[in-house]
Amino acid sequence: MKTAPVQEIRFHGRGGQGTVVAAIMLAKALFRAGWHVQTFPLFGVERRGAPVEAYLRMSREKIRVRSNVYRPHHVVVQDGRLLQTVDVTRGLRPGGWVVVNAASVPHKAGSLDGFRTARVDATAIAMQNGLGTATHPIINTAMCGAVARVLQMPPLELLCETIAEEIGIKPRDNIRAAQAAYEAVHVAAGSEVIDAAP
After folding, report:
1. 83 neighbors 77 (Cβ within 8 angstroms)
2. Of residues 39, 41, 37, the one with CA closest to residue 6
3. Running DSSP on this structure, what letter comes out for residue 67?
4. Strands 74-77 and 51-59
5. 3-state DSSP call for residue 170?
6. What domains can you pick out in the chain, each with its CATH number?
7. What are the Cα distances from residue 138, in Å, to 87, 135, 147, 148, 160?
8. Which of 7, 22, 147, 184 is deepest in the core (most CB within 10 A)?
9. CB of 156 within 8 A of CB of 148?
10. Sign of torsion over alpha carbons 16, 166, 159, 170
11. Residue 166 backbone phi and psi in degrees, to 5
């Protein structure tokens, strides 16, 4: 019996950035698009600013896996500074995407060698849309938009519908942030945006 391919994404962020919410919103938008999904967090020290991980698993057929995510296909980094302290590429499959919130190529970018990389200044986009404060911008919806562009899934319109339903505070501003990041994401030389899986 052939097993349907399962794709896995690991999210890295800091407490207060909405990392877990980003994984959940993408999962719900993917579900709207006909995918089977799982999403779950991993918390260390539960305080603002502490490193946080969240996971998203998706497949076109029922997902029977119930383990943690050890070998993700893609990684989302909500704070580029984490590249200096966290091994965000651990277990990442060859050719996988690393989508980073950064205004420019992050320091220690050599750790991303061998992987397709994309960046977006989600922090600036969040501030332009009044999401959070200068010290604590809320960048999760912008990062969702960037991921949707890079992976070409879920469709942007379904992501926006999900944000409208799931985000109770400033839903229109959050939708604008997702749309702006979708358009603004920069793909590193040698990387190509992939087509959505059939």
Report:
1. yes
2. 37
3. S
4. unpaired
5. coil
6. 6-187 (3.40.920.10)
7. 23, 10, 16, 18, 16
8. 147
9. yes
10. negative
11. -95, -25
Instruction: Provide the strand spans (E) within 23-124.
Output: 36-43, 51-59, 74-77, 97-101, 116-120
Can you tell me the distance from the alpha carbon of 18 to that of 79, in angstroms, rounded to the nearest whole number?
11
Query: What is the Cα–Cα distance from 67 to 76, expressed in whole angstroms?
Result: 20
- d(CA 144, CA 148) in angstroms, rounded, equals 6
Strand partners, 51: 14
pLDDT in tens, 103-157: 886 655 557 777 899 999 999 999 999 999 988 899 999 999 999 999 999 999 9
**DSSP 3-state assignment of 57?**
strand
Report which DSSP code applies to 16.
Answer: T
42 in Cβ contact with 74 (< 8 Å)? no
Q: Read off the amino acid at residue 102.
A: A
d(CA 118, CA 114): 13
pLDDT 10s digits, 48-94 = 667 889 999 999 999 988 888 999 999 999 999 898 888 999 999 98
